[in-house]
Specification:
single chain; nucleotide binding; 21% strand; succinate-CoA ligase (ADP-forming) activity; 9 helices; Succinate--CoA ligase [ADP-forming] subunit alpha; Rossmann fold; alpha/beta; 2 domains; succinate-CoA ligase (GDP-forming) activity; seven-stranded mixed β-sheet; NAD(P)-bd_dom_sf
Length: 296
């Protein structure tokens, strides 16, 4: 099957008629994603990209049966957009927006805590199940269908990992870009768990970066499962100086345990096949699946 999104997903776009929403919605439609409409307050009743526009997410769900949303709403209003989607019963909420205030996300996390939904992002590239649905901003042509799952904090490294996997003669089941902010909806461990429990995913690529403890928690979970599926891991920021923020808001070294070196050591101790360069991801995964030995 896949996780989170597939050919049966009914997708709406919040911020549908804005420039970013319009551009990426068109890309998603051309990829084959089942985009059933969008939401822009005040423009309900009109059409855009040959799809209906609604004033609220509740209206869109009622009229289209939407169960997935992708959010391109400006940072100041994005938290409200997430909570509106949650209240409307959307099951998968993909938030692309970058720059949402941390205090807003603290409130959102508490608000959705007991709701039956999965929030991906914010500040993420989205989710893609190749050949079925692209709910995000990733270049779809890089991804080919297969049985390797990807979980990544970094958008560009999601694409690089997919490219390496495909060049190695393999393909992707589902790729999840979880986002690089300090507070996100689905931490690395949770995303890895989705793929561990997916019968059509044979192995996983896990890409992290300096800062935080998401990778350590995911690594411990992988070890606790008995390493039932092989995992190839990479940590970005290996040359980052302590105290320097690198790209993402969450990518800042706060102590000895959230350096790249420490994370790579923890991952290796938990049975993950750690690579020092993203260029080695595909080749390493191919060797792991063949049962060949991997050089340390």
């Amino acid at each position: 099957m896949s996780v989170l999104v597939n050919k049966d997903s009914r997708v709406i776009v919040q911020g549908f008629t804005g420039s970013e929403g319009s551009f990426h919605a068109q890309q998603m439609i051309e990829y084959g994603t089942n985009v059933v409409g969008g939401v822009t307050p005040g423009k309900g009743g009109s059409t855009h990209l040959d799809r209906p526009v609604f004033n609220t997410v509740a209206d869109a769900v009622r009229e289209t049966g939407a169960n997935v949303t992708i959010i391109f709403v400006p940072p100041a209003f994005a938290a409200d957009a997430i909570m509106e989607a949650a209240d409307a019963g959307i099951g998968v909420i993909v938030t692309i927006t970058e720059g949402i205030p941390t205090k807003d996300m603290i409130y959102v996390k508490e608000y959705i805590r007991d709701k039956p939904l999965t929030l991906i992002g914010p500040n993420c590239p989205g989710v893609i199940t190749p050949g079925e649905a692209k709910v995000g901003i990733m270049p779809g042509f890089v991804f080919a269908p297969g049985r390797i799952g990807i979980v990544s904090k970094s958008g560009t490294l999601t694409y690089e990992a997919a490219d390496q996997i495909v060049k190695a003669g393999l393909g992707i089941s589902t790729a999840i870009g979880i986002g690089g902010d300090p507070i996100i909806g689905t931490p690395t461990k949770n995303a890895v768990e989705l793929l561990m429990n997916d019968p059509d995913t044979d192995a996983i690529v896990m890409i992290g970066e300096i800062g935080g403890n998401y990778e350590a928690m995911a690594s411990q979970y992988i070890k606790e499962t008995g390493n039932k599926k092989p995992v190839v891991g990479f940590i970005a920021g290996q040359t980052a100086p302590k105290g320097r923020r690198m790209g993402h808001a969450g990518a800042i070294i706060g102590g000895a345990d959230d350096t790249a070196e420490a994370k790579m050591r923890i991952m290796a101790e938990c049975g993950i096949h750690v690579v020092k360069s993203p260029a080695d991801i595909g080749e390493t995964m191919a060797k792991v699946l063949k049962g060949e030995s991997i050089e340390a």
